[in-house]
Amino acid sequence: HVQLVESGGGSVQAGGNLRLSCTASGFRFDDSDWGWYRQGSGRKCEVVSRKQSDSSIDYAESVKGRFTISEDAVKNLVYLQMNDLKPEDTAVYYCAAEGPSWDSDSCVNSEIGYWGQGTQVTVS
Questions:
Q1: What is the model's pLDDT at position 97?
Q2: For the residues of 19-81, what is the DSSP string, one character each?
Q3: Residue of 15, 81, 89, 123 with fewest CB within 10 Å of its CB?
Q4: How far apart are CA 13 and CA 36, in angstroms?
Q5: Can you say how many angstroms the Cα of residue 89 is from the centroid of all Cα atoms in its chain?
Q6: CA-CA distance, 52 to 71, in Å (whole number)?
Q7: Cα 62 to Cα 44: distance, rounded to the nearest angstrom
Q8: Helix (H) or strand (E) holding 121
Q9: Taking a C-beta distance cutoff of 8 angstroms, is the pair 48, 93 a contact?
Q10: Contact criterion met (CB below 8 Å) for 89 and 96
Q11: How far apart are CA 21 and CA 77, in angstroms?
């Protein structure tokens, strides 16, 4: 049984930084592909950043140069470091294992991969 849990969300002023964490049980991040996704109110479920099984990493154009993903194989944790946050980054952020590589209508209702419960990030 795969379970993912995100943490680290919150409210921050524009220009600020946040780091999200995601821990998993029943899944090893260093053995497969995983990613961070987000869904703002009235918006699609966006692939923020995704690490492929060959270790290549992709970022959405909107976050390139500001967001960085990383993993700690010892702790089986992954992170999303978000710098220079903007109001348009406001969304619920999800960690997903083996999730889709494309944007979709809903993160919550995704039929692909294993998803955490999400953590709210609000930038004002």
A1: 94
A2: EEEEEEES--GGGS-EEEEEE-TTS-EEEEEEE-TTS-EEE-TTTTTTEEEEEETTTTEEEEE
A3: 15
A4: 21
A5: 12
A6: 13
A7: 14
A8: strand 119-123
A9: yes
A10: no
A11: 7
Residue 4 has which token pair? 């993912």
Tell me how far apart the alpha carbons of residues 41 and 97 are, in angstroms, rounded to a whole number: 23
What pLDDT, on a 0 to 100 scale, did the predictor assign at position 53? 84
Are the beta carbons of 18 and 120 closer than 8 angstroms? no
- Looking up tokens 């709210």 gives 120
Query: Locate tokens 């969300």: which residue?
Result: 9
Least Cα distance to 32 among 63, 75, 64, 78 occurs for 78
pLDDT tens-digit readout, 22-60: 999 999 998 889 999 999 999 999 999 999 988 899 999
Six-digit token string for 33: 């592909």
Amino acid at 95: C
Q: Map residue 88 onto helix, strand or coil.
A: helix
> In Å, how far from its chain's centre is CA 22?
8
Token pair of 27 as six digits: 């899944």
